[in-house]
Amino acid sequence: MRFIFKTDYAQDIRIAKHGGHWFWYGLLLALLVAAPAFAGEYLLTQLQFIAIYSIVGFGLMLLVGFTGQVSLGHAAFLAVGAYTEGLLQAKGVPFLISLPAAALFAGATGIIVGLPALRLKGIYLAIATLAFNVIVEEIIARWEDLTGGNAGLLVKPAVLLGQAVESPAAFYYLCLALAVMVCLGMINLLRSPTGRAFVAIRDSEISASCMGVNLAKYKTLSFGLSAAITGIAGALYAHKIAFLSPEQFGLFQSIEMLTIVILGGVGFLHGAVLGAAFIIFLPQGIAIAKDWLPPGVATSGVQAVVFGLVLVGFIIFEPLGLYGRWLKIRTYLELFPFYRRGMFRRQKAYAKSERLR
Amino acid sequence: MTSNDAVRERSREEQATGSTAFFEVENLGIRFGGVRAVDGVSFALRPGEVFTIIGPNGAGKTTIFNLIGLIYPASSGRIWFDGRDLTGLAPHRIAELGIARTFQNIELFEHATVLQNLLIGRHRHRRSALWQELLFTPGVRRAELAQREAVEKVIDFLDLAHYRDSLVGGLPYGVRKVIELARALATEPRLLLLDEPSSGLNPEETDDMAFWIEDIKNDLGVTVLMVEHDMSLVARVSDRVLALNEGRPIAQGTPAEVQSHPAVIEAYLGSED
Amino acid sequence: MVQFVQMLLAGTAQGCVYALVALGFVLIYKATETVNFAQGDLMMLGAFFALSGGTLIGLPYWAVILFAALVMAIVGMLIERVVIRPVLGHPAFTVVMITIGVGYVLRGVVTMVPGWGTETYALSTPFGQKVLRVGGAVIAVQELAVIGMTAALCLVLYLFFRYSKLGVAMQASSQNQLAAYYMGIPVRRVNMLIWGLSAAVAAFAGILLAPVTFVHSNMGFIGLKAFPAAVVGGFGSVPGAIVGGLIIGVVEALAGRYLPEGFKDVAAYVVVLIVLFVRPSGIFGETTMKKV
Ligand SMILES: Nc1ncnc2c1ncn2[C@@H]1O[C@H](COP(=O)(O)OP(=O)(O)OP(=O)(O)O)[C@@H](O)[C@H]1O
Ligand SMILES: [Mg+2]
């Protein structure tokens, strides 16, 4: 096991705790930057999606994983970001302005939802956000003059510094850059007082408030930030899909977004990325699995069953998600042969029984 | 009733003799449904003293803390801190004013390390704006270092260096109790509320706790308001004691006076059967 | 006026279905503190069993109801035993995600069963398209039957919880599991039975809903409207679920009649937001606060 001697306080707040971090994350970043050179078009598309869904994962992780609040309506924020981007884009607004606008608008929506949600807990909060999601979807479908309604809205490629971001490689770099920026922002936030206040609220509201954390302010802030990050993802999503329609932003999108967080590992930033990658590659896995099944079975059915089984299986057997599994493997390797079963037994995932609140 | 009046009489006397009302509770009361959990409780703290509330189970001691922490709205009465009326403030303002507390049944941030727990205690000393934190500007970095320095002092003070980077969730009860005290101290309070600091501790740990409370009073100069059952600990550290029964004050004075007060003896014997 | 009464009746009938699904939520929530997002899919599965009970085995309508309820009770108990029990004590939210996963699996499995698949089926009922003419009003017998049968089921459940030993044990264990456990009530087994009971209620709801929406693998999405019903009533309150369901059903019918197109679909959600805004734990819900 790596033992780090702490010699000064600065060590705690460094991003990379030791040389190994620099090496591995540097290597990962180098690979990602070099990807367009060796990855085929198909893989590049997958990587774009992973970057976009990682941003979604970061946004939700902030709210669910670090602040302990539930949202079954995040697809609505994705929609607000996507439509803001699509509409501004159509008006000829440059990306450097429309992207922050999408984030801001989604964030403002998040605050508007977060404020009344302050008084709600657990299931009530979940249903309220679900209701919000359904209503937003309906508004998009009905406000045809603005959104094109169910006929949909076409989105052209982004225009960045006068250049249309058209080639897959260029768009990939855009997604990657934004994902890295959001990730760094999250890391920074989490090692600052605000991030700690979020975690405090997650673990014990009553204690947090006794330590001087203004629950109303920080919960609303978390909702707003989370929605804004999701809005950024929405803007990228709009360009990636190039065609927006209301049913893309329904409850099932929200559930899929939550799945990223759950499968990746609630409460870990790494989890957002791992979960995103998993969700993107899952359909491929299903396509392969389908070859083994008798013909005539509906693909959608197989997809639903596999998706459901994965979700159930993960929660029962690996509540800490993919990242939790990785931590265990790493500890096993580092401690070999001294690893004990049950070393991770004590750690349960976050959030607590509602009845105790 | 007569003892009740006596208590009121005494506290009025103290006011008259010009004791500074550093912290004062006046005629505090709350009902839960039909139960008067706290009823007509008044007392005033002198700066730098250890003041203990005792009473049988269910007497309303924790409820008084929750009223002071503004977790429940009081049905009657007022709370003053530094000449300021606390009624109607939001709960988080209490910490900002310099009152910190511990809980009877430990309320730590279970999924965070000891260090992180204490750093949350520093919340009221933060200065940075959100955008600065998102960029982690040099200012934020400096502030973070300063917070850590402050927390490290508390860690040394309470001998927690060994557990510094452990997750709280897995630590033994006695240690968690100390961490809670440490987290409260990390806020640099002027008034510290301790709810049964020795409950669940073994005699050795209780002894440590007594030392720390004395140090907190003598070295840090923090005023302590404490709820405690262990009478030897109470007698050892407290300057004054208030006894409570069924929500009402029954005696107040030095530990020895209160312990031998007939109403107190009766309350404890009466509740024993 | 006549039209209004007709509409009210239709809304009430629809509300009964919401109420029954909501009732399923509430039973499970009270017992295991789990919000079962698969309740609608249990209902769908129940309707499919009813369908097969009628067409394959050739049972009469009343026997079909019993058959579907029985099979679903077993399915419900299996789900509790296999996926819910292992995660008891986990955060409520993870358990919710599990039930969402179960819902996916049920929907997917139904499409794979030969004879069920992705088709839409009609479930034959003895009421058919018959109508009653009272005054000037034309009333579908179907709607009256739904209301009547819901009322009957509620009465049966009431008597069960009130007078049967098992019912009382269920109530006790849902109020305080630990205390019930110390009283010698086998809490785990009771929880399993509650899942069975609530799945049977879901089957009943599915059979009542079948004439309206037909039987298909996505009919369970109606469960999403039963959430607002349960929340409006206050999650955890049985009478609340019934009242909430009726409110949502009637409001929806009114919105469909008097408001512009589109409002009918979101009426349930608008109502739930308004109710939550005024009462954060629903009409009959109790606010609980953590004691420290
Ligand atoms: N939130 C609440 N709702 C209803 N009743 C409450 C609540 N909090 C406390 N009570 C009641 O108020 C009374 C006093 O409780 P409290 O916790 O203050 O007692 P205590 O003196 O701290 O006892 P102990 O020594 O057991 O800690 C008890 O009867 C308790 O049941
Ligand atoms: Mg107490």
CATH class of chain A: Mainly Alpha
Provide a count of the helices of chain C: 11
User: Major sheet of chain A, described briefly?
Assistant: 2 strands, antiparallel
Can you tell me the residue ranges of chain A where pLDDT is under 50 for at least 5 consecutive residues?
Answer: 345-357
The poorly predicted ranges of chain C are none
Q: What ligands are attached or bound here?
A: adenosine-5'-triphosphate, magnesium ion
Helix content of chain A: over 70%
Oligomer: heterotrimer
Overall strand count of chain C? 2
Task: Estimate the mean pLDDT confidence of chain A.
Answer: 84
> Could you give the order of the helices and strands of chain C?
HHHHEEHHHHHHH
Count of DSSP E strands of chain A? 4
* Strand numbers in spatial order across the main sheet of chain A: 1-4
Global mean pLDDT of chain C = 84
Largest two-chain interface:
A-C, 55 and 55 residues
Identify the strand order in the major beta sheet of chain C.
1-2
In terms of DSSP E residues, the strand content of chain C is under 5%
Rounded to an integer in angstroms, the radius of gyration calculated over CA atoms of chain A is 21 Å
**Envelope shape of chain C:** globular
Topology overview:
The complex is a heterotrimer of chains A (357), B (273) and C (292).
Chain A: H1 10-13, H2 19-38, H3 41-66, H4 74-90, H5 95-117, H6 122-142, H7 144-147, E1 153-154, E2 159-160, E3 163-164, H8 168-190, H9 193-203, H10 205-210, H11 215-241, E4 243-244, H12 251-264, H13 269-290, H14 299-317, H15 321-335
Antiparallel strand pairs in A: 1-4, 2-3
Helix pairs in contact in A: 3-8, 3-9, 3-11, 3-12, 3-13, 4-5, 4-6, 4-11, 5-11, 8-9, 8-11, 9-11, 12-13, 12-15, 13-14, 13-15
Chain B: H1 2-16, E1 23-32, E2 35-45, E3 50-54, H2 61-68, E4 76-81, E5 84-85, H3 91-97, E6 99-101, H4 114-121, H5 130-135, H6 138-157, H7 173-186, E7 191-195, H8 203-218, E8 223-227, H9 231-237, E9 240-245, E10 248-253, H10 255-260, H11 262-272
Parallel strand pairs in B: 3-8, 3-9, 6-7, 7-8
Antiparallel strand pairs in B: 1-2, 1-4, 4-5, 9-10
Chain C: H1 2-32, H2 39-55, H3 61-84, H4 92-112, E1 131-134, E2 137-140, H5 141-163, H6 165-175, H7 177-182, H8 187-213, H9 223-233, H10 238-258, H11 263-278
Antiparallel strand pairs in C: 1-2
Helix pairs in contact in C: 1-5, 1-8, 1-9, 1-10, 2-3, 2-4, 2-8, 3-8, 5-6, 6-8, 9-10, 9-11, 10-11
Bound molecules: adenosine-5'-triphosphate and magnesium ion.
Adenosine-5'-triphosphate binds next to strand 2 and helix 2 of chain B.
